[in-house]
Amino acid sequence: MDNHTIAVIGTGAIGGYYGARLHHAQCQVHFLFHSDFDHVTQHGLKVDSQEGNFSIPAEAINAYQNSQDMPAADIILVALKTTQNALLPQLLKPILKPNSTIVLLQNGIAGEQVIAEQLSHSQIGGGLCFICSNKVGPGHIHHIDYGNLTLGRLNPECDSHINWLTEQFQAAGVGADFAGDIVSARWKKLLWNVPFNGLSTILNADTAQMMATEQIVELARDIMLEVIAAANAHGTALDSAVVDTMINNTAKMQPYLTSMLLDYRNGRELEIEYMYKNMLDIAAKIGVPMHKTETLYQQLCFINQKIQTR
After folding, report:
1. Is residue 285 annotated as part of the catalytic site, yes or no?
2. Catalytic residue (one of 188, 189, 252, 277)
3. What per-residue confidence (pLDDT) applies to 2?
4. Where does the record place the Ketopantoate reductase N-terminal domain (predicted)?
5. Fold entry, domain 185-308
């Protein structure tokens, strides 16, 4: 178990941060880069963190530009944006072993089911990243706040891998826990992501600006209650009391530009399929109305279409 090989597919704000943490915990980590490859092979990977800065020197990082050059991995951490998920079959097949466990460190819901079907592979897990982290330059990540990680799986077949990974993250100083069923865990993460990623993009505002406006706070609260209603009807019990906790925590955090807002500002396609459409489709099938959430999604579709046609 101690010699498990870990692959990080997508070394950006999320994959770079968590992969570097695992590297410093003496794990065998191999990183797939895209545009940052040349920079990282010359200068290494740098993380500025509110918990203390750290890095991986160029001579110590296992960096690759093509997954075909990577070794087969026991655990594959996917940290790509969900807008790039169409690439996953071709990226993962060269490094996939029969007993590999794929862990999607992504937003939204239903990603695990999709990749399980595409690859005919049953050992699929997911990770929910409760973190404020942005990529600020080539091979350069700024970890602003939080950092805890909740891991889960589609079926118990990969429990041993997920348990081992949880332990490695804990050894690396990451607050990690194994939640069991990933679907239930994803509903809990949607509770924050759905209102605040979407509203921040529509309003072009950070969390502090949104929390300073009473009407926006109330709108976020209403959307969260719609998510809770859908989750409960789908089989994941969520208590409405958690809404106040999340609202209060958001008000206390450092001003944060959500990942979707950063994508919008940088002209990148928005992650609306996995974060909104999949959830709305589930809600429609079980007869749960989500009027305010659907309105938010429709506005995001307009913005996303403008981005795609530039």
Report:
1. no
2. 189
3. 61
4. 6-155
5. N-(1-d-carboxylethyl)-l-norvaline Dehydrogenase; domain 2 (1.10.1040)
